[in-house]
Every structure is written in C-alpha cells, then in structure tokens.
Amino acid sequence: MRLLRVTGVAGAAGVTGAIVAVLAVAAAGPAVAVPVGSVPLTGYTGVVSDESGQPVAGACLTLLRTETESQGEFCADARGRYAISGVPTDLGYRVRVTAPGYRTHWWPDTPDHLNAEAVWVPGTTLVQRNVTVGRGAGTVRGRIVDDSGAPAEATVSIWAADRDWRVLAYTTPGGDGRYEIRNLPPGQYQAALFNDVYGTQWLPGRQDRTAASAYPLVDGQTLVLDERWLPLGTVEVRVTDAATGLPVPRPCARIDTPLRTLDTCGAAGLVRLGQVPPGHWTVAVDAVPSHFAPEQPVPVDVVRGAVTPLAVELVAGAGVTTTVRDALTGGPADRICVRLVAPKWGGQSVGQGGYCSDETGRLAIGPLTTSTTAQLYAYQAVDPYDPPARRYGAQWVTANGGSGDQRAALRVTIRPGTTVAIAPIRMDPPGAVSGTVSDATTGAPVPGVCAHPYAFRPDRGPGHGRHCSAADGRYTIDDLGPYRWPVQFVPPLGSRYAWQWSGDVADRFSASLTSVPVGGAATVPARLVAGGTLAGTVTRDGGPAGSGYVWTYHRRTGDVAGAGPAYLRPGGGFALPGHRTQQVYVEYRDPTTTCWYGTVPPVATAVGVTAGATTTVAMDLADTCAPRPTG
Question: Cross-referenced InterPro entries, in alphabetical order (predicted)?
Fold first, then answer.
C-alpha cells in the first residue's frame, strides 16, 4: 500500500479554498487523486464544523474497510471543506473523523466503529454531507452479572436522557461480563441491558425506562455502571394421571416467550421450567407416549424470584417405548423412524409418516387412542441438507434384530392406558436391490413401475424416484438392511399390467426372497403380465350404493391385491384392474358403511380373479354384506 497526497484549489461556485486528499491505493494499481484545480463530480463533500458552527480546519475523514484497514484519508481545507472521491464505490466503509482538540467522531453521530453506519461512496453523483464534531469525551464501563453473581453476556445500550440517541456495547467475549464505551460526549445518560434469557432491564434494576436513573458524564470522566440481572421465575408442574391420580412417568412442559422457547422434561410426575421471565404465560404439557396433552395450554402467572406451582391432569393413552441402537457399535442411532403396520389388511404408503428416535436413541410411539396389534417397520429419515453421519438399512423389527420378511416381525399389542416397552431396535448397514422390469410377452422394458420392499397401499400415491423403473426398465431400492427381502412391483395408474411380487407371483407369501449384501446390490427382475379386472355393482335398497369405493385384498396375506381403490360410478358400477391370478376378498367403504362381500353372510367369501380377464361380482349392502374376514 502506498499513500499519495494531492493538494488542489476548487473553483466551482459555492466551493472555495484548498482541498487536501490523502488516498491509500494498492501498489499494483493506478494512483487515484482529485485533479489539481478541480472539484470532484462524484462522492461526498461537505463542511466539518464544531458545535458552534465554526469550520474545523484540518479535520480528517478516514474510510475504513475494517476496524483497522484504511482505504484512504481525506482532510478538510482552511474553511473546513472536505471531499471524498476516487475510491472503489462497491465497498462498504465506516467513516472516522478526527481533529486536534476534538473527540473522535464516526458517521453519522457515534463514538466508535461498532456503532458507525456503513456507507458506500456515490459513484454517479456528488452528495453534500456536513459533519459536526465536539469537544470533551468520557467513558462508560462496567460489569454485568446474573442473579447468582456469575458473569453474564449482555448487549448494553447507553441512551441520551435528553434526546433520541443511543449507542451499543457488548460484554467481552472472554466471559467476564465487562463492557466499555469510549468517546461519549458529556451529558446525561440512561443505560439498559438485553439478552435472550433475561430480556430488557434498565439500570439500576428496573423493568422500564420511566423508572431508570439518569447518570451525568463529564469530560475526562470514567463512569462505572455495574449491574446485576434481576432474578427470573420458576414454574413447577406436577403432572398426574386423570384416572388414577398417580404421577405421570415422563412429563414435559414448554413455554413460548417472545424471546425464546423454554422446554424440558422431568420424571415421576414433576417437571421444572427455570429462568422464566415474569408475566402471564401458557404452559404446554405432554407426556409422550403414555398420555395425551391437554386440548389447550395451561395459563400461569410467573413472579420474579419465586416458584409458581401448577397442577395438570392428563388422560392416559396407549404407547410403545424403545431405544434404537447401532447393531455394530451399540451406540444410539438418531433419526430412525418407525411405522406401525397392521399384520393384515394394511400395508404402507411411500409418503406415510412415522415416529422417530432422538439423539439419545429414544423412540416413543403414541399416545394412541385405540387397541391394536401392530408390526414395526424401521427406516432412516435422510435430510439431503443434513445427511446422517452413518447410514442404516430399513428393517422389519423382530425380537432380536431386523428382517426383510414381515412374517418374522414382532407383533406388539397396544392397549389404551398401557405403555409397552420393547427390546432395543438394532440397525444394520444398508444395501440395495435393483433390476429390470419388462413385459413378460415381448421382453420390452416397462417404465414407471414402482418397486417396494413391503406390501404397498396406494392411499397417498405410488411415489417416485429411483425405486420406480426408468425408460430402460431399471429400478433401484436403496437403504435396505442386509436381510432376505421380497419385492412388490406396482405398475402406474392406467397401466394394463398386474401388480405382482418377486418371482413373478401374485402374493407376498409366495414371493421369492433375495439376500441384500451390505454396500452392494442384489438383482431382482420382474416380468409383468396383463392384469385381471374385478368389475361389478354395489347396491343399497335396490338402487346404487352411492359415492363409496372398493378394495381387493389377497386371501392369504391380506395385502392390497390390485390397483385400488375403485370408486363407484353414478350407476353403482366399478372396475378394479391390476390383478394376477389369485383369490381376493372384496371390501366396500363409504363414510357410513364398511362391507366385505360374502355369498353366505355373515361370512366373507373370496373371489377368484384371473390375469388378463374380467371377473364380475354383484354386491348388495343388505344381502351380501359380511364382517371383515378373521385371521
């Protein structure tokens, strides 16, 4: 960096006298200067004067890119006139003004770099900006501690008592709670503190400005303003079971304030929320997975330095708890999610949500409202913007590890009022399944067929991605555990092909199982055949049933068997395509009715469907209606 000093005489109307510019320019670049005998056409110009309006000759304005890195210095002439020009206009600067006998001044009217505004030198116009500098300076410093006396972080605001003016300081990063502001003009000041925990507090120990003290500051004085944060409050919540009166095992509570959210969990029916600001708040209480949260948050009035008790009763639900572990290391596995899947008449969708483990591996399912028996499908939730450090393969949870076969999965009985603890879920590293989907007759690749490692239920659409075949018929199912898996192939809506399982069969129990290697990919091809259709009518009281829909389920597995649901047409007719040759149960649903087709009510009857053909049934909601099949 080299300095160039240029002195010139300005001759434009209204601008007289000498202008002195000292410019810092890069050694590798051309020198930048205000031409002799001319006035800059762009940048800043103005007069530096004192508080009485008299010009301050020789005052210098320094442009700083950082607190210590200067771009250039521009000094005023005998009449206080300055000009800033010839510097890069795409950089933001802070402007420091110095003059012998005057305190240091930063644009627009601040004592230091921290409080100065960033300015960009105009590149197309000449902007008039006058500057006033003053005499005399004082310092305010102090130390901030919390209500226990320990050093505390804070933003300190120093306010002029007689005008709308303030500056900021921060407690030092070293953690000793100290702050300091120099170059303050003499006057009367008030001080305030702020941080995200305690909020705003005015000195000394006041909650609002109207009660704050004003402190005089004279030239050369160091004013010490120490402050201790006022104590906050505590909310102690006792949570009991509404029916038994017993303490809830793991209650949690949350208060949302404008500054932050306070939340924590406790044990044995007790949870304490500390550092709560005084005032009226609402407390959200829950006890996942054993109990339901109240319909509305519970109100509470918090007092400084006091413990506010709160009693809450919760209604018990049904829940499941477990931990998720890395099968190799035994360490906790977070972001592992679990879906509850019915052993029969269920299936799962690509978009179906689940319950996920936290960073400790804890997994809580519930609270649930009804009794059920479920199997658990565990998989890793992957955020592309925050990928996991370790990848895991999906699994059906068994009593002692993972499996790819749903038949081996643990069956968990869930009842209201009971929380079941099951053995830890152990996650293994992943592998993949890939292959080609083709037409069984022509051998041509079939695009748009989605492959699933489980019985699929299309309530939320078939999904998309690598698990669906591309134009060349290729698909890949990623992130499967190293087990033996079946694969179901689901053609796109409107396709003429049948749903089928690996081994080119109609059902999961008959499907071929393929071992998935860790870090590799097993090959599972599929050859699709033309699907069979179940068609018919649904009547009620001699007329069309209405606006319901029809599903088909394989007789043995209870999995969805074809491209349902088929919605009734205005005349009560329906057509449900996509079946390989198999026996299926037929279910009709509408908002008020569930009916399983049965030729000898009240027993549901399986119907044979044939690939490439149409089978017809006539359902009547009075004469052919049966309960869901047992088993």
Answer: CarboxyPept-like_regulatory
CATH code, 431-528: 2.60.40.1120
- 471-493 confidence digits (pLDDT tens): 999 999 999 999 999 999 999 99
Q: Which CATH architecture has domain 138-228?
A: Sandwich (2.60)
What pLDDT shows up at residue 31?
A: 30
Q: Classify burial at 554, counting beta carbons within 10 Å of its beta carbon; exposed 0-12, middle 13-18, buried 19 or more.
A: buried
Cβ atoms of 461 and 351 within 8 Å: the answer is yes
Topology adopted by domain 233-314: Immunoglobulin-like (2.60.40)
Pair 588, 597: CB distance under 8 Å = yes
pTM: 0.74
Largest Cα span, the chain = 113
CATH code for residues 318-427: 2.60.40.1120
- Write the class of the CATH domain 2-132: mainly beta
Residue ranges for the chain with pLDDT beneath 50: 1-37
Distance of CA 304 to the CA centre of its chain: 33
**Three-state SS at 525:** coil
List Cα–Cα distances, 605 to 336, 531, 601, 625, 626, in angstroms: 40, 21, 9, 10, 9
**What's at 345, amino acid-wise?**
W
